[in-house]
Structures are given as C-alpha cells and as structure tokens.
Specification:
With 294 residues, the protein is of the alpha+beta class. The chain contains nine helices and twelve strands.
Length: 294
C-alpha cells in the first residue's frame, strides 16, 4: 500500500480511529506531534497509521518508547504470534530539493514586505532555470517592485535565462465564499488550493503569505489541533519549480515529473497569525475542512 501524502494518511488514520483502544501508547503521540515531531510529522503519522492498521486486523499493538539504544517502533501480538515492527518509508525530498527550497525562501524573505505593502492578492507560478543560490537577495524584491500591481488575466513579469515567472490575481470572492461555508486548517493543503486554485495543485512546492483570523473547535483537548481559519483577510503565494542542469541531474525523474516536495511555508507579520503557525507543517490529525457553524 502506498500513501502519497499527509492528507491521505490523516484520512486513513481517522477511518481506523475506532481501533485505537488496541494500541497501547497511542495517547503519547499528540504530544510528540506538537513537540519533537512538530516540523516533520510524516514519520509519526506513518507509525500511527501502521499501528491502527494492525489493530484493525485484530492485533494488540504496543508502541515501544525510545531509549538510548535502537529499538523497534512497536510490538504486535495476536494469539500465540508476536512480532516487533520497525516502520520505514521513502523520503519525499532530496537534499538538493531542501537546498533549493531554502534558497528560494532567502529570495522570498527579502521581498515579502513589498507584497504586504502592495496588498494585492496575487499568485505567482515560477520556474527557475538556474540554481537559486546564484541569484541575488533582491531578485524577487526587484521583480515585485517593478511589476505590482498587476491587472486582470495571466501576466508574465519575467521570462529570461534565469527564470520564467507568471502571475495572476487570486479569486478573492471565491476564497471568501468558501470560508463562509467551511473553516480550513491553517496549515492544510486544502487552504493553499482554495487560495491558489489550479496554480496550487496537491503536492506542489508552494510558499504562502496569509493574513488570517483564527478560530478554535470547542472541546478539543489539544488546542493547536483544533485551530481553524475563519477568515482570510489577505493572501498571496508562489508555486515554484526548478529545471536547472544541477536540479535535473540530482533530482529523481519521478520527482521532476510529479513534484513530491510539498511544503506550505507560512510567512507573515505577527498580526497575520502566521508566526504562530510555526513554519512548515503539513496537516495534523484533524480533517482539512469542517462545516463553518457560527
């Protein structure tokens, strides 16, 4: 069985949550998710899903606490059968993908204040033809100073040997219409897709700058897991790809054709609430949308 993204793992875990009583130690996992696994939750999600899958098949599962020595992840028992399970999964990003992401964020951070000053709802789609490490800090800053605000339709503010960058206005009415009916998770791919539309497909590499009003689900024991977005006051975003020689050389073909480096990088001023979201965090253990009951 191949589970291709965090959202799918979340849904699968919810479908099996009724078997959690057969998993000893599962109550520790929410705390681990919000602490040591906060920025990289995929591995923990996978372990929980594996444990619940065994429990669904009639196994009694016990998570083994980590110690100084290397230990398996869990012990499973059914009748007179006993096994120890070590969970392994494929890594979704290469070292070069992380370097490209960090270099893009260097360019993004240097110019994001312009996006906030212009306050225009714009979504960018860019392909970098050179290693982003070669580009100066003011690369995106200068582009935004010269091209914003933009008009209706798809625009191409840059198309040269360094990068091809397109831009178009975000459907503000569509975003507000969705938010009237649903509350989205602040760190979910769903919210990114609502804002970016077909320029922000699932599993794309996306950076989002939102200003949001947060709400909480009453009765949720872990407050961060019950955090939802009630209103989007402003947003802009950037979907990025890389096709430089070094990127094509070191990146697996499957990742070039179907990007698996999904990240939702939340950046913004303190009043945007983005600083409270805590950086790159895929979906946590609640559904991406719930009906917006006011």
């Amino acid at each position: 069985m191949v589970i291709d993204n965090t959202s799918s793992r979340t849904i699968a875990a919810h479908q099996r949550v009724g078997f959690a009583h057969r998993v000893v130690g599962i109550e520790r996992k929410p705390d681990e998710l919000l602490k040591e696994h906060r920025k990289q939750p995929d591995g923990l999600f996978f372990e929980v899903l594996v444990a619940l899958a065994y429990a669904e098949e009639g196994w009694d599962v016990t998570f083994i606490e980590e110690g100084q020595d290397k230990t398996p992840d869990m012990r499973i028992v059914r009748g007179d059968q006993e096994f120890f399970v070590e969970c392994k999964r494929m890594v979704r990003t290469t070292d070069n993908s992380e370097k490209e992401r960090n270099q893009f964020l260097r360019l993004w951070d240097a110019g994001r204040h312009v996006l906030l000053e212009k306050r225009q709802w714009v979504w960018f789609k860019g392909t970098f033809h050179v290693d982003p490490a070669e580009l100066p800090d003011n690369f995106l800053l200068d582009l935004w100073l010269s091209s914003l605000p933009i008009g209706l339709g798809e625009r191409v503010p840059m198309d040269n040997e360094q990068a091809t960058i397109k831009a178009r206005l975000i459907d503000q009415a569509g975003v507000r219409r969705h938010m009237r009916e649903f509350r989205g998770k602040a760190n979910s791919p769903m919210l990114t897709q609502v804002i970016g539309g077909d320029w922000a497909p699932e599993d794309a590499s996306v950076t989002l700058l939102p200003m949001i009003k947060r709400g909480h689900v009453n009765g949720c024991e872990v407050s961060e897991l019950g955090m939802y977005v009630e209103e989007v006051a402003f947003a802009c975003g950037f979907r990025r790809n890389f096709d430089s020689k070094i990127s094509i050389h070191v990146t697996p073909a499957s990742e070039r054709l179907w990007p698996l480096t999904a990240s939702c990088n939340w950046h913004g001023p303190p009043e945007s609430c983005a600083d409270a979201i805590g950086g790159t965090r895929p979906d946590t253990a609640l559904p991406a949308t719930v009906p917006n009951v006011r």
